[in-house]
Amino acid sequence: xxxxxxxxxxxxxxxxxxxxxxxxxxAKGEIYAIIGPNGAGKTxxxxxxxxxxxxxxxxxxxxxxxxxGLSPDRVARAGIARTFQNIELFSNMNTMENIMLGRHxxxxxxxxxxxxxxxxxxxxxxxxxxxRRKVEEIIxxxxxxxxxxxxxxxxxYGIQKKIELGRALAAEPELLLLDEPCAGMNAEEKxxxxxxxxxxxxxxxxxxxxxxxxxxxxxDISNRILAINFGRKITQGTPxxxxxxxxxxxxxxxxxxxxxxxxxxxKEHQQA
Length: 272
Ligand SMILES: Nc1ncnc2c1ncn2[C@@H]1O[C@H](COP(=O)(O)OP(=O)(O)OP(=O)(O)O)[C@@H](O)[C@H]1O
Description:
272 residues; alpha/beta; Rossmann fold; 2 domains; 11 helices; 10 strands; 39% helix; binds adenosine-5'-triphosphate
């Protein structure tokens, strides 16, 4: 079975091909990163995968089905969740309520209404209790207990990013798309995110497709990497292979100078 594959994906905005004949495959259980300079087309690929843009050409295969052109809601129902580059939370709702929004795919009654309107023994009440239980599991997993009832607008940036991750997990995805999970974070917060992502892979068995500018993080966390520039694939491979590719070095440095990319081989050596 093909778990996830993109083949010949092209997304044109007028004369500009933001994604140009991009193909790659992600195996179940891996952490797969897409890297590239600003404007390379990374977010466009995510937007095509989760149905925000209908691709101009190509196929997007998830569990053997072509999901190209499905609406974001249907893509989510198929098992693909996403976080965004800029935090997309409801700042005047608390942590629990924001994560609960990720459960809407499973709700037959309206959000938060079940327990209130129909009593605990009704179908709506049971559904509400079940959803709240799942949300509590996520709050425990991400260690968000002390923020459960706090309005998210007032919480630190790193915590808000974690709540957004929690909301995506609430949809119980098989594939999780993370768009720059470390953007705007300090070194300690980034370490935290790396820890959670590895945990999500190991403990929940969720496959992760990641966009990230922080090369240290990408090299540390990814099983494989796709490098793109000007909408086109440069290369794909292990962190070691990709970090040594001359076109990747050129794309990042604009020349053939000594690269500033971390050396995964050295990291492995240090860890040994
Ligand atoms: N809706 C749109 N309409 C027109 N052009 C777009 C649209 N979305 C993206 N683009 C263009 O497509 C190109 C790729 O943009 P995209 O946001 O995918 O790059 P990116 O690699 O995610 O960049 P960054 O790292 O800065 O987020 C850019 O030139 C961008 O201006």
